[in-house]
Design a protein that fits this description.
The protein has 473 residues and is mainly α. The chain folds into two domains: 395 residues, no CATH class; 39 residues, no CATH class. The strands form four sheets. A two-stranded antiparallel ribbon has the order 1-2. Strands 3-4 form a two-stranded antiparallel ribbon. A two-stranded antiparallel sheet has the order 5-6. The protein is globular and about 65 Å long. The C terminus is likely disordered.
Length: 473
């Protein structure tokens, strides 16, 4: 049975599974690192213990999420060699240095200052500790920038030449590669999505504790800050998504046609298909609910502007329509739900009922995981929409995989599923346990790391606080 499976499909499924698990954690830690920086800055500026309590509360959660993000990300790098060796050989001269820059400029920065941020406040002082927190937050942003840059180049390749061995190599300057046409739009959309994801998690935790104790000062502050973030950032994210859509229309028009559900071209204005059931086999949309010409207005700002449908592209160059159609609507629908939550919180704040509105707080809890679902739906839309290419227009996915038999890929995929659900399921459960406990007044720091460089037990007469002096009579 395994022999009858397609090894390319299995390899794609394996990468999709691991990247989906991985991206959950950076989408949280990118925003949470910046939130920690804001909390510590407010503590130093105001001197209020509440901000320090919240910092110590969330830094423990950040440490667990950051660790799981690192571990889950390492596995994906290995897959470039195990399952996608042809892609690595051909695109390595471009993708490889970009991934190396991410390690050199971002990961080392994060790793270098992470220990100071977690355990060093009493050792380096508040201001140097704030610098360490800022460096960790900066490192997460730089890391996201390089990773999105490598991915963007695969969608809109630029600044390259193909040598005699069929490899993509820089054609002179690296600037066109780094600042490829889709990169600015993608990195803005991704980072804002991470901030919005974090704000929804913080808001859900604050709402959970408010429902249990409406007078909890820590929960009130968390909930208020999170709702401000959702109200201000959600409309910005919708605008950023719109600009990325316009960029995608220019460089990947087949993806847009699939997202919109346009099987046929519309020379005099395309409708916006709100819902329907795609039928790729019959090349039609069944039971469609449409708004006439609205798609042309959104994408080209002209009611009568022509839009190409999937019939304008070769059948073997069309991405999977059904997946794109529904993942795009899931992402957009959640985006507008986040906007609604933010506007609802502004209304409650204006009426002075932000901390008493139980339905708003229940809605915030319900929306807590929505950021993760939205970013995963966005990545599915982005990556599935690039098919059948790995490097758009130049290297097909079917030409990029390693010469592996289906049973080998299936075995590693099965192992990943079992290990990931066990290990990261346990980690996620532990994070939820941490969130279930309300921050305390005088929240303790994370446990101190050992102060010795060797040995597994303290030396005689020494404990974690320093040497003991024994007095003998």
């Amino acid at each position: 049975m395994l022999q009858s499976l397609d090894p390319v499909v299995l390899a794609r499924a394996q990468f999709a599974f691991t990247v989906s698990f991985h991206f959950i954690f950076p989408a949280f830690s990118i925003g949470l690192a910046s939130y920690l920086l804001v909390l510590e800055s407010l503590w130093l500026r105001t001197g209020k213990q509440l901000y320090l309590d919240l910092f110590r509360y969330w830094v423990k959660i950040f440490a667990v999420a950051f660790g799981m993000g690192v571990v889950s990300g390492i596995v994906m790098s290995y897959q470039f060699g195990t399952n996608w060796s042809v892609f690595s050989a051909k695109a390595g001269p471009v993708i490889g240095p970009i991934m190396a820059y991410e390690v050199l400029t971002a990961f080392f920065l994060e790793a270098g200052f992470l220990g100071v941020m977690l355990f060093g406040m009493k050792k380096v002082g508040p201001r140097l500790h704030l610098l360490a927190t800022a460096m960790v937050a900066l490192g997460t942003l730089i890391s996201a920038t390089w990773i999105v840059d490598a991915n963007s180049w695969m969608h809109t390749p630029a600044g390259f030449a193909i040598n005699a061995q069929g490899q993509f190599v820089p054609a002179g300057s690296w600037w066109p590669i780094i600042f490829n046409p889709s990169f600015p739009y993608r990195v803005v959309h991704t980072v804002i999505g991470a901030y919005l994801t974090t704000s929804l998690v913080v808001g859900a935790v604050g709402a959970w504790h408010l429902l249990r104790d409406a007078g909890d000062a820590h929960a009130r502050k968390m909930f208020s800050m999170a709702m401000w973030m959702a109200a201000l950032v959600a409309p910005v994210q919708i605008f950023a998504g719109d600009t990325q859509g316009l960029n995608t229309l220019q460089y990947e028009p087949a993806k847009i046609a699939a997202m919109e559900g346009h099987f046929d071209s519309h020379p005099h204005g395309a409708p916006l298909v709100l819902f329907g059931i795609p039928d790729p086999a019959r090349h039609r949309m069944d039971h469609a609910i449409e708004v006439p010409k609205l798609s042309s207005l959104i994408l080209k700002h002209d009611l009568n502007a022509p839009l190409a449908g999937l019939d304008a592209f070769p059948a073997n160059r069309v991405p999977p329509v059904s997946i794109l159609f529904w993942s795009f609507r899931l992402m957009v629908g959640l985006g507008f739900a986040m906007l609604d939550l933010g506007l609802w919180s502004l209304w409650a704040r204006w009426r002075g009922t932000l901390f008493e509105n139980r339905w708003l707080q229940r809605a915030a809890i319900l929306m807590g995981p929505s950021g993760f679902v939205a970013v995963l739906a966005g990545w599915v839309t982005t990556e599935v929409g690039r098919q059948p290419w790995t490097v758009y227009g130049h290297l097909l996915t079917a030409q990029s995989h390693s010469p592996l038999a289906a049973p080998a890929v299936a075995a590693s995929l099965t192992a990943f599923v079992l290990v990931y659900f066990a290990a990261f399921g346990a980690g996620t459960w532990y994070i939820l346990r941490l969130m279930a406990r309300s921050p305390d007044a005088g929240e303790p720091e994370p446990a101190h790391m050992p102060v010795r460089a060797a040995g597994i037990t303290p030396a005689p007469g020494v404990d974690a606080d320093g040497p003991k002096v024994e007095v003998h009579a």
